[in-house]
Amino acid sequence: MSRSGDINTPVALLALAFVVIAFTVMAYRAGGGSRRRRKRDR
After folding, report:
1. pLDDT, greater one: 28 or 16
2. What's the per-residue H, E or C state across the chain?
3. Which of 15, 21, 28, 42 could form a disulfide with 33 if both were Cys (CB 3.0 to 4.6 A apart)?
4. Hey, where are the domains in the chain?
5. What share of the chain is helix, strand, coil (3-state, %, to 5)?
């Protein structure tokens, strides 16, 4: 059982990190990040 937990820990952490990164990127793209860049470029 120790082996299963050891392997499950990194997998869960990786999945959580991926979800957090994806959510952050989506929020940044949908947020004022894109608008701010566009306004600065104009």
Report:
1. 16
2. CHHHHHHHHHHHHHHHHHHHHHHHHHHHHHCHHHHHHHHHHC
3. 28
4. 2-41
5. 95, 0, 5
The Cα–Cα gap between 23 and 2 comes to 32
pTM: 0.51
Sign (positive/negative) of CA torsion 11, 13, 16, 21? negative
As given in the structure block, the two tokens for residue 5 are 């937990």
For 16-20, 24-28, 31-35, which range has the lowest pLDDT when averaged over its residues? Answer: 31-35
40's tokens: 């600065």
